[in-house]
Structure formats: structure tokens, C-alpha cells
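Hey, sorry to bother you again with one of my protein questions. There's a protein on my desk that I can't quite get my head around. No rush at all, and the record is pasted right below.
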Amino acid sequence: MNIKEIEVNRYIAKSKVKGIDFVINPYIGCPNGCIYCYASSLNNLYGHTEEWGTFLDIKKTNYKLKKQSIHNKTYLISSSTDCYNIYEKKYKITRKILEELLNFDFHLFIETKNKLILRDLDLLKRFKDVKVIISLNTLNDKLRMDLEKYSNVKSRLITLKKLYEEGIYTILNISPIMPFLTNYKEIINETRSYVNEYHFEFLKLSNNYKRKVLKYIKDNYPNLYYEYANIYLFNKNTYFINLKKEIEEFCSNNKIKCYFPSKN
């Protein structure tokens, strides 16, 4: 892992995420190394040529947050990294940000895949409005290991349950939904007793990592390659149109809070 500390003007940036005013990314890069991660397309923007998942820039700044830019706004930590990646244990950038944010009145979402967030329960409990999003797209840990480097399925479920038991509002982001591989009903049935709300995002593939994901499908699930080619090479998007209707109906019938954060 190529790790370096960098000076930045500020952590905060305007958000392109639906329903979020600003995003805070304590790091550039992400050790999770998910092969489907859209953020890997930002490598060139950050001046990196290394493979996604092999570098991490530790952001340092002297910028102080201002009340007028925070009050009653909605913030998300993180949108293009995992703020509780394995190196946060050493650098504690996310914890320092949370300590500063305690002074303001606003709405906070934190998204992660890692159990290290439990370290900061003492801070999370002090926020007036905080919601934690844990991402998961399968209960099959073999598939998870193929797609991501860190944080097994069991660890994420335990983390969700602990947060819920400690009074933290929990969101399970079933993301990205892999066509014909992600069983959203199975995931909901397993977790419903300790999840307040479900988010759903479909797998989207851009040119720079489309080839990698399609090769993985071809090598490991050859029977599904034709279906993936239809969706991602020939732009036949009826699969996701129908799936969204199915999910909305399932959630409505079972009185489950569901939300699609992006335009699917």
C-alpha cells in the first residue's frame, strides 16, 4: 500500500449525491479496493496512476469549519473512500473530524463497511441527528471476497446490530446490486430486526472498470455473462427498471422503509 500524508485546503466539498448538501472525504483512495467502485475513475483527477485499492492519501488541513456553512445542512462522510478503513485506526482523521462537527447543529450520514466505526460510539451518541450507512450486497462471503478486500459479511452484520442496540439510526445500503447475484430479499430477511431503513443502488459500470467486472463475471459466472453483456454492453436496462418496481412493491407490502439515493 502506497501511503502518504498530504495538505489540503479543506475536507468539505459540495455534493453530487441526491439529498446531500456536502460530502467529507478524510482520505483519497480506499484500501477496500472494490472492483466495482465508481471512485476508481477519479484516479487521474487525484494524480494517481496506481491500481485502485493500492494507495491512500491521508488528508491534513488547518481549515476550521464555520457555523454558517454547517447549520441545518446535510453532510455525508464518505462518498469516495471508506472513512473507517484499516488505516483510520492509526491516523484518526475521521475521529478528529467528528470531534469538530460536534459543535454544530446539522444532519449527518456516515457510510462505511468497517467495524472500526464502533470505536467512535462515544461521539456518535452525542450528535442530535446521525445515521450510519453500512454497505453490503451479498451474504455470500466468497462472493464478497472476490469483489472487496476487507470487512467480511459477519463483521458488517455485527456492526449494524451493535449500532442499532446503542440507539444509532441504521441504514443498510444494498449496494451495488449485482444482477442475478444479489439476493436483496435474503439480506432484508437476515437483517430486518436491527435495520431502520434500506437503500438500494444498482451496479453501474463506466469504461475504466467495466472490463474488469465483466471479465470477473465471464470467468466466475459464465452462465450470466450474456445477461451482463445485454445490460452493460448493449444498454438493455429493462432488468433494473423491473427490479426497482419489484423492490418498491416488496418494501411497501412488508412496511419496510426504502430509498434509492441515486437515479437508478
User: Anything to note?
Assistant: The mean pLDDT is 92.
